[in-house]
Write a structure and sequence with these properties.
Shape of chain A: elongated
GO molecular function (chains A, B): DNA binding
Organism (chains A, B): Planotetraspora thailandica
Largest sheet of chain A: none
CATH topology of the largest domain in chain A: Tetracycline Repressor, domain 2
Number of strands of chain A: 0
Distance between the termini of chain A: 55 Å
InterPro entries (chains A, B): Homeodomain-like_sf, HTH_TetR, Tet_transcr_reg_TetR-rel_C_sf
Oligomer: homodimer
Low-confidence stretches of chain A: 10-15
Number of domains of chain A: 2
Strand content of chain A: under 5%
Keywords (chains A, B): DNA-binding, Transcription, Transcription regulation
CATH class of the largest domain in chain A: Mainly Alpha
Pfam family, one (chains A, B): TetR_N
CATH superfamily of the largest domain in chain A: Tetracycline Repressor, domain 2
Order of helices and strands of chain A: HHHHHHHHHH
Chain lengths: 201, 201
DNA sequence: TAGTGAATCGACCGATCGGTCTACTCTCGT
DNA sequence: ACGAGAGTAGACCGATCGGTCGATTCACTA
């Protein structure tokens, strides 16, 4: 049973006219899997991308391949965004982390925000053998190392534990912001992150 | 494409022989939706519960009804478990919260742990109109009020923000423990929770 | 200009989805 | 002894799933 009215899928095709079939497929997959979940059908993606069925299987081998590749690209994009947010804080590591959490605080305000794409994907794909799991794990691993590096540069007394804690706050806020958007979880996360960052200074 | 070998589903029926068809359906739904995700098929649930197809639709009206009811019961069970964990801490509110996080720390050690059932369900069911969403939101609402009440009793300077922060830590740890089980996220969460709890004391 | 590879359309496949329905069995209260 | 309600077995429904394939069009290049 479906409770919500169907949101038009062809709309996306217009905004995605740029690039070849491969790019259009990636773009459509990004949008639809985020908005409608990973269970979104191949047909919906094809319609949105305005691409022939065969092109999908030639470029990506199948839905799983498309999904995995999409997460990979999105991971790289997100890591760049994180790096930019850190850079906005200047040179001081603590200030850089502060800037990062200030940036994350505003994320849920984006229209259509539905939480962290990677967490959602990993929890949705119950099959432990799905190729997307490795992509997500690798992405989260790199993000944690990024946090740890900043904490280490800041001379934090326990950068490993603190890195995990910052990760918990980021993911916890993303999950809760998606689940109950009316509350300002990211603000509370930012405040607590501040305490973690300032430990031992 | 399915990457993992199929885990036998009939096994569960044996462990669920107790009670009528309704109870067996609930039990099977709890197990299968947690282990295999909410996408698990009706047939798998019926086989595991060793129950006729018709019984499901007579008792619950459909899969969605079964799922919603199951989450409701599980919510009540979890709230009781939380209450017990708090009670283990005695009378002092801070000690009670400490006891709660000590309990939560051990949760991921349970075999087959796959994170928080409610978070997983809510993120998996992309359809915003699915009845399960209300059940999950209500459950999380009550859990937050429970945390807030303890913090208030402890004379915490900002029980609302701290309540949210504890929630972030719990959910963040659950998500990450499911995603990368090899790391001890709950320990880091417990340490940070301690700091939140002790604020202003 | 002829040839080649990419992209398109759309029919088609078997499998599975959630759900409906008929027919039969069992048990229990009257 | 008998009828009612609950449970079971399983065929069946339309829809959709991911995936394959033949036939065609088109752009680019040798």
């Amino acid at each position: 049973m479906v409770y919500s009215q169907v949101v038009e899928t062809t709309r996306i095709a217009k905004a995605t006219r740029a690039g070849g079939p491969r790019d259009r497929l990636m773009c459509a997959a990004k949008e639809l899997t985020y908005r409608d979940g990973m269970q979104v059908g191949v047909d919906a993606i094809l319609t949105a991308a305005d691409v022939a069925r065969r092109s999908l299987y030639q470029h990506f081998g199948g839905k799983d391949g498309l999904v995995a590749e999409m997460l990979k690209e999105e991971g790289e994009r997100m890591e760049q965004i994180y790096a930019d947010a850190l850079a906005a804080g200047g040179d001081d590591p603590r200030e850089r982390l502060r800037a990062l959490f200030a940036f994350l605080e505003k994320l849920p305000d984006a229209p259509g925000y539905r939480g962290c794409r990677f967490v959602n994907a990993d929890l949705t794909l119950a099959d432990p053998g799905h190729p997307a799991h490795d992509v997500v794990r690798a992405h989260k691993q790199r993000r944690r190392e990024m946090l740890e590096a900043e904490l280490r540069a800041a001379g934090h007394p326990d950068p490993v534990t603190a890195g995990i804690q910052l990760e918990l706050l980021i993911d916890g806020a993303a999950v809760n912001a998606a689940l109950r958007p009316e509350e300002r979880h990211t603000v509370a996360a930012g405040l607590l992150a501040q305490i973690v960052i300032d430990q031992g200074s």
